[in-house]
Every structure is written in structure tokens, then in C-alpha cells.
Design goal:
With 327 residues, this protein is an alpha/beta fold. The chain has 12 helices and 10 strands. The strands form 2 sheets. The chain has an 8-stranded parallel sheet, with helices on one face. The chain has a two-stranded antiparallel sheet with strand order 1-2. Helix 2 links the parallel strand 4 and strand 5. Helix 1 runs parallel beside helix 11. The longest helix has 19 residues. The chain binds NADP nicotinamide-adenine-dinucleotide phosphate.
């Protein structure tokens, strides 16, 4: 699979990576055997970038990645983790001593001396304007705890504030056919600055697969059940912030735009890969079959102008008004 470069840190990632939140928790049950099989399927299909976080299953996702990579020393996978959401969400917690402690735990969980990439995990907005925070992140690099650092953001404004910092290697942001504002506001600035873009929630939590109906029920321990209105964390993380009923109807229309030989989920991934400035896309696969289907999207032909403009038209008509004011 093609790889792209995080220019500021000179690291490389497959254009389609793997998100591993679902291997920790919050997406219903995924047992350890299935979790390892998902990692194996992704790696065998050419994925060289895993995204995780210290909070996913309170370390379970990181530990599962470590177990997998220990058994496959032949693989070179860049592992990006995140920190900051295991404590109360106040700016005062974003200090060097805490960063060191959080990094040390992730280094243990992942079984590495130096973390490839650590991202602030959607911190409170004032954190992005704090010189002390970015000085502390520079210290982590100097101390060789991390090779590079980045941020995972909720809004375009947060992304732009972070991109202006000289040593931010990556910005992780929601980008998909139901979340287009970053195309206009963030990707051009990131390209110009050489900051990598990690596109998350690429399938709008599965909506863009077109497989749900308005009657679909998700497990009690699945955020698509318990966070629909932002009860546990930002509402924008579940179904990309799109109201479920609207999303199901729009997804049916989206599915009809998929070219022959391409599933709706693959159309969504192919669409993201094609946006200038994207470094890697990180779909969350819950089975080896999903992992393989997602990586196949990287090998599909470029989408035509006709398909691109139909996807844009669908967004403008059905989705834009719901999401652009907030994220
Ligand atoms: N704040 C943050 O930094 C943050 C927040 C959210 C996510 N993330 C990262 O982004 C990654 C991806 O986002 P996400 O997992 O939230 O959402 P996503 O990738 O948009 O959606 C994942 C869901 O899509 C469905 N799916 C996946 N592959 C499929 C396929 N080939 N065909 C049909 N359906 C498919 C599955 O739904 P079913 O379970 O219904 O099959 C899966 O649970 C996460 O794993 C995590 O690494 C970061």
C-alpha cells in the first residue's frame, strides 16, 4: 500500500491505517482473539499505522497492539497513541509531570522505550494556546520519551491553532463525506506547514457503510447507543455529530453513489484518501473482514469528478447545516 510522510517528523504511514478504539472498549464486546485477528488482517493487507490511546479500554487497546507486535518482529508499524483523557478535563492537568507519567504508562503498555507519536487527546480548548504545554511536549522529545507529538482536535479552530506551533507533527481530525469543513479550513494550512493529517471517524461510526436502518439497535456498551447526544464525550464523535435518522437517510443516498466494485464504506475511504493533505485514514474495523475491505479501498481507482461532485452535493443538501456551525 502507498505510504505518505509526516514531514515534520519524517515518519511514514500507509494511506489507510487502523483505528483501534474498538479493540479497547465502547463499541460493544470484542474479545482478545478477535482483536488480534483484526490487527493481523490489517497488517497483512499493508497497514503500517495503528492509532490507539491510553484511555481505550484503560490500556487494553495499547496492550493488545503490544502483544500483536511482539509476535511479529518482522513488521514495521508506526503506533500513534494519545494522552490526557484519564483525568478530569481541566487545563491545569496538562503539565510536564503528568505528561511524563502518562507517557511512561503508555511506554509500558506498548512495550517500547520511545513512543512513535503521542497526541493530546481532544484537550480543553485553552490548552492549544498555552506556551507551557508545547514547551513540555518539546521536553518529551528531548528526553527521548517520544519521537514526535501531535494533537487530536474537535474543531477546525483548534486544528489551526495547533498547526501554527512549530513542532506539532500531526493533527487528527474528523474528516469524511459527512464532515467536510476541514477541507476548506484545515487541510490547506496543514499542507503548507508540513503537518500530517490523520483522518478519524472516516465512516461516520459506520453510518457511511449504508448498512443501518432507523431501527438498528446498538449494544448498551456501544457509544452509538450511549453517546448519541454527547452524554459521555463530544457529540461530534458519534455518527460524526449527524442526527441518526438524518444520517441513515443520507447514507442510503450516499450508498447509491458507489461505483461498481466499490462498497459504500470503500467509497468513503477512497474519497478521504483522495483529499490533498491527508496523510492517513484510520477506520475502526471490528472484524478481520472489515479490516481487509477497508485496506482494499486504497487500491481502488481515483473517483471521477462526477462522483466527487455528487458526494459534495449530498453533503450540501442534507448534512452541512447540522455540523458546520459546531465543528
Ligand atoms: N478523539 C479522538 O481522538 C478519537 C475519537 C474517535 C475515534 N478516534 C480514532 O479513530 C478511529 C476510527 O474512528 P471510529 O472507530 O470512531 O469510527 P469509524 O471508523 O468511522 O467507524 C467504525 C465502524 O464502522 C463500521 N465498519 C468498519 N469497517 C467497515 C466495513 N468495511 N464495512 C462496513 N462497516 C464497517 C463498523 O461498524 P459495526 O460495528 O456496526 O460493524 C465499525 O465499528 C478510532 O478507532 C480511533 O482510533 C479518535
Amino acid at each position: 500500500m502507498d505510504e505518505r510522510t509526516f514531514h515534520r517528523s519524517d515518519q511514514h504511514a500507509s494511506v489507510i491505517g487502523l483505528g483501534t478504539w474498538q479493540l479497547g472498549a465502547d463499541w460493544g464486546d470484542v474479545d482478545d482473539k478477535e482483536a488480534l485477528a483484526v490487527l493481523e488482517a490489517a497488517a497483512e493487507s499493508g497497514v503500517t499505522f495503528f492509532d490507539t490511546a491510553d484511555v481505550y479500554g484503560d490500556g487494553r487497546s495499547e496492550e493488545t497492539i503490544a502483544t500483536f507486535l511482539r509476535g511479529r518482529p518482522d513488521l514495521h508499524v508506526m503506533v500513534a497513541t494519545k494522552m490526557g483523557r484519564r483525568v478530569e478535563q481541566i487545563p491545569q492537568n496538562y503539565v510536564l509531570d503528568n505528561f511524563r507519567e502518562w507517557n511512561d504508562r503508555s511506554r509500558r503498555n506498548l512495550g517500547v522505550d520511545v513512543l512513535d507519536l503521542v497526541q493530546l487527546h481532544c484537550p480543553p480548548t485553552p490548552v492549544y494556546s498555552s506556551d507551557e504545554v508545547f514547551d513540555a511536549l518539546d521536553t518529551l522529545v528531548e528526553e527521548e520519551r517520544v519521537k514526535a507529538y501531535g494533537v487530536s482536535v474537535e474543531t477546525c479552530e483548534e486544528a489551526l491553532t495547533a498547526i501554527a506551533r512549530p513542532n506539532v507533527a500531526s493533527v487528527q481530525i474528523i474528516l469524511n463525506p459527512f464532515r467536510m469543513k476541514p477541507l476548506r479550513e484545515v487541510l490547506p494550512a496543514a499542507r503548507e506547514a508540513g503537518v500530517g493529517i490523520i483522518a478519524r471517524v472516516p465512516l461516520a461510526s459506520g453510518l457511511l457503510s449504508g448498512k443501518y436502518t432507523k431501527d438498528t439497535v446498538f449494544a448498551a456498551n456501544d457509544h452509538r447507543n450511549f453517546n448519541r447526544h454527547g452524554e459521555a464525550f463530544d457529540q461530534g464523535e458519534t455518527f460524526s455529530g449527524v442526527d441518526f435518522a438524518t444520517g441513515v437517510e443520507a447514507a442510503a443516498e450516499f450508498a447509491a453513489l458507489a461505483p461498481e466494485g466499490c462498497t459504500p464504506a470503500q467509497l468513503a475511504l477512497r474519497w478521504i484518501v483522495q483529499q490533498p493533505g491527508v496523510t492517513t485514514v484510520i477506520p475502526g474495523a471490528r472484524s478481520p473482514e472489515q479490516a481487509r475491505a477497508n485496506t482494499d479501498a486504497a487500491r481502488l481507482p481515483e473517483l471521477t469528478e462526477g462522483t466527487l461532485s455528487a458526494v459534495r452535493d449530498l453533503y450540501d443538501r442534507r448534512i452541512k447545516e447540522q455540523v458546520e456551525g459546531r465543528w
